[in-house]
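Appendix B. One record, verbatim.
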Amino acid sequence: MKLFGIRNCDTVKKARKWLDEAGVDYQFHDFKKDGLDSATLEKWEKSVGWEVLVNRRGTTWRKLPEQVRDNIDAQTAHELMLENNSLIKRPVVEHDKGMLIGFDADQWAQQLNQ
């Protein structure tokens, strides 16, 4: 299992703590330190849709020009998420049964059978 996120993000910290306490083995990939390639992002977009991946609650989204936010499409979202991965909802987890986007302890327990 691989958890993608930003090390100092509060939600990622909660998710990592939950995984550690549940005894779940995972590999952590820090967007800021390790980057994110277009092929990985494209795979996620095909799996869950770009709309799910865009974090519309964060300051990065709010700092985008209104015209960009109002007219965002799949291609624009892809480019923006690659340029500034703080725009991606965190964490993103790839596991053998699929993907998890964001942290919800109940959903994680159900999908990861914890």
